[in-house]
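Narrative summary of target 7.
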Amino acid sequence: MNSILKPFRATYFNSENIKDLSKVVCPPYDVIGQKQLAELRTKSIYNLAHVLIADKGDYKKSKVLLNEWFKKQIMIDDDKDCFYLYEQKFNIEGKFFKRFGILSLLKMNKNEILPHERTLAAPKIDRTNMIKSVEANLSPIFAIAVKSSGYISKIHKKYFRKKPFLNAVDHEGNINKLWKIQDKNEVDDICKVLGNSKLVIADGHHRFEISYDYFKKNRDKFKDLNYILAYVADCQNGLVILPTHRVITVSDNKKILFEKLEKYFDIKEVSQYTLGKNLKSNQEFCLGVCREGKFYFLKLKDKSLLDTVTDESYRELDTYVFHKAVLPLFNKSGDIEYTHSMKETKKLACKNKTAFLLKAVSLDSVFELSAKGIKMPQKSTYFYPKILSGLVIRRFVKS
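Modeled conformation, tokenized:
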């Protein structure tokens, strides 16, 4: 069957030796800060964070640990190739969501798998060193089928009442469940329905790029190296993209800051709730500002501000417009801090720090821009929740 999806024999934590899976799973490497890394590793000596992130560039240690866990049967291989149905239950501001998809091997066909975000050199170097050492995909990438068939939903309705094969609660309280899909007809249908879809990478751009480069250099060394571990979902209500707000140190005092903004925006002080509502309801470029504990809604009145954005496609991307047209208005210093929480912006925006609150990018925009070959700046999208690392990994098998 001509399909870009393929069932596989996953490696996972042995339930006989690991009684609480929640203590050994972790987020993807790129969202784990030093504080959280320490917390994760304190949970268990077998938390995957011990392997996933190399301390002081010691990638060999990650390999030694992974091999040791396998020898001790802390982690074991499945006895059969299969797909894994993965469900996440989560809530945002009191509203509950459910997202589900298929963990599988995904053929790295660059014509069928579209990126939407730019990559950086440093993370690619780090992940290249890691894949060379451990010879495994430690975390799945996250890909979305542009056209929804509804088949994953059909499969989910069949499985979700059954006892899951794996069950874990992540550090944010989100519930993660996994079921094995071994029925040949269901496996064939997944390959048929999803296996010919055009996909967009939602998360894992660096992992995809370095895995493809690794395949080109080692294609004869391992079996199916032209495939990568992936979580594949189709369009559904649970595909949530959170906004990514910027907190910036500017030298301008509050009066001067707003004088610069008033040239292009109508500015109104509002409540946090009203600001969130306004950002969601406005189609044109707009933003919020938090300074000294107060929130302001800024509605564009002078569209000449957008003249610096010469590509019409990018004018629909608020993160790009902000960095290209708004940020240059100010004298800033230090690194930009990022947060997805409006509540947290209020804590961070103190003294000479100013929070700029942006709208979330829509899924349609992600699809449209990626189809045009346009890549968004870093920190443009944040698909929530993250796909957990440590539920399953994929070790390379020698040819």
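The longest strand covers residues 95-107.
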